Amino acid sequence: MEKHLDNLDLNLLRLLKVVVETRNTSVAAEKLGISQTSVSRGMAKLRETFGDQLFIRKAHGVEPSELAEKLAEAADNMLLPFAEVLEAYSAFDPQQYQESVVIALEVSLLEMFGKGLYRALSAALPQAKLKLIYWQEGSLQNMLDRQLDYLVHFSLYPLPQDIYTHHLSNIALSLVAKKNHPVLSQSSDWEAIHHLPLVKLVSNAVNAKHDPFDEIAIARGYQPNISLVTHSIPIAVDKLLTSDAIKFSSSYLLTHSDELECYPLPTLPKELQELSIAGGYLQSKRGYPLNQYLHQTVQSFFDGITQPK
After folding, report:
1. CATH number of 95-309, picked from 2.115.10.20, 3.40.50.1460, 3.40.190.290, 3.30.70.1400
2. The whole model's pTM is what?
3. 26 closest CA partner among 11, 40, 14, 6
C-alpha cells in the first residue's frame, strides 16, 4: 500500500470524502462536476490502493466501511490546510493584514531611504507590524529560513538563485564634501584629491579588502587616506562639514545638510559612476500575494523618488 500512496492523487481523497458523504456515486459525480465514468475510474483506483473493503454495494448506492469513513475523516483533515492556504490567497486584504512584515535593507540604504519607505509601507499595510532592519551577517540565512519577507540591497551584492531579485533604481554618484572645498573647488582629478581624508559608510555590499574606489586609487599608485568608517550618516556628515574630508556618495547626502555640495567624480569606469539598487524575496514566495504586494509598494516608492541635483 505504501507504494500506491506515493502516487495517490489528491483528487481521489476528495472523491472518497464525497462518496462517503453522499453514499451514492451518481450524486457524488454531480456534486463534483465530473462524469460517472470518472467516478468509476476513481473508485477503482481507491480500491486498488486501499482494498476492496472500502464500500459495499447497495441497491440504491454504496455503504462505506469503517475504513472508508476513517479515511474520509483523514482526507478532510489533510485537505483543510490546502483550503485555508487558498482562502488566504484569495482573501488577502492589505488594509486588514495584521501580521509581521520584516524587511532588511543595506545599512546606508536604510539610513537614506528608511523613513520614506516606512511611510510608504505604513500607508500600504496600515495594520501590519512592520520591522525595517539593516542587512547584517546572518541576514541571508534568515531570508532562506523564511524569517525575512523582503530585502533591499545594492545589485552588486551576490545572492543565491533561491532569491528572486529585481531592479528598483539607479543612484548617480559624485564626490560629496563641504561647500567651497579648498581642493574640489579647483579640481577633482585623482592627482589633486588622492591625499584627502576619506569618509566611508560600512557596507556589506563590498566583500573585497578594498572597495572599488580604493582599488582604482591603489592601481594609480595612491594609498587611500581613510579617516572615518561608520554606520551613521549623521556622523559621516559631521566629519565632512568639519574637515576637508570627502566621500564617494550620492546627492541624497545633501538632504542631511545645506552646507554640503556635490563635486565631479575623478576618472572612473562607467559602471562605478552609479549604483544599482535591487529588491528581492524568496523564489518560493513569488506567488504569495503579500510578497507581490511588497514588491509593488517598494517599486512604486523608488519610482516616485527624484534624485536631488
Report:
1. 3.40.190.290
2. 0.66
3. 40
